[in-house]
Amino acid sequence: MTEPKDAAERRAIAPVICYPNDTLPVPDMALYAAALDTARVSETVLAAPRDACAFRVPAGSFFRITSVEGPQVGDLNLWNAHDLSERFYSGKTRALHGTHVTTGERLWSAFPHLRPMATIVEDTLDWYGIDPYGGSVHDVIGTRCDPYTGNLLSGSQYHHCCHSNLTRALSTATGLPLHDAEPHVHDVLNVFMCTGFTRDTGQYFMKASPVRPGDHLTVFAEIDLLGALSACPGGDCSSEHSSDTAACHPLQVDILTPDSAMLGNWQPPQRNGYDRSHGL
User: Fold this and answer.
1) Is this model's pTM higher than 0.85 or not?
2) Domain assignment present for 269
3) Residue at 273 is within a domain
4) Structural domain range at position 82
5) How many CB atoms lie within 10 A of CB 69?
6) 175, exposed or middle or buried, with CB in 10 Å at 0-12, 13-18, 19+?
7) Is 100 inside a domain boundary?
8) For 179-214, how does the pLDDT look when each residue is reduced to its tens digit (9 = 90+)?
């Protein structure tokens, strides 16, 4: 189509932030840091390469995801440990905090709950920032590699993509049949993954993650959590995913239990206060 005469003026209109977040409840990072100083590892689980693990974290404890052996990204799902309908909502987390999350930002739960499920308290990759390509780390924009898109694009039947890995892990952790567990698997926090959008076509891109063995992401559980973490078949996602060709490594999940006295009067956040009448 022919550009209108005022095309440049239309493009020059300044953007407006959709969800100004200066009224969000502010996490008490000093309290969390003091509690973390007393925390000790109470359990360790490992997500094997091209597979997933499940883990449980009581409210008021921490979990830490650590790169071990080599550069590796992971896809994280979180649920309320007592109610699978309350699960991580990547879209609203993105709307509230941005395309990538780091220390001091929170992982929010789905409607109608919409409350903080977890708060990031340590991120050894927070130095990365935004690179010249527009890439950054720990994104909430990608969905997860899955067998359905693979089948759509190439006719493949690949079973060790993150969606399938998370489905198996949730089924094992809950006892749900595989087909009943699958609908609870949801869009992820892409831990350690370096991603962005191309400026020319707006396409989602990935590039080699800056993660190295020892790098970790430490998260405070605001409610009782059931988590599942997939060690992505893309490895560090420098070239491809959903295949058996990329070099892949395990990811370690440590559950850290603090001295409860260090949390003082902290309480899990209440569910969202909207009355759910929807105008009727």
Assistant:
1) yes
2) no
3) no
4) 43-251
5) 13
6) exposed
7) yes
8) 999 999 999 999 999 999 999 999 999 999 999 999
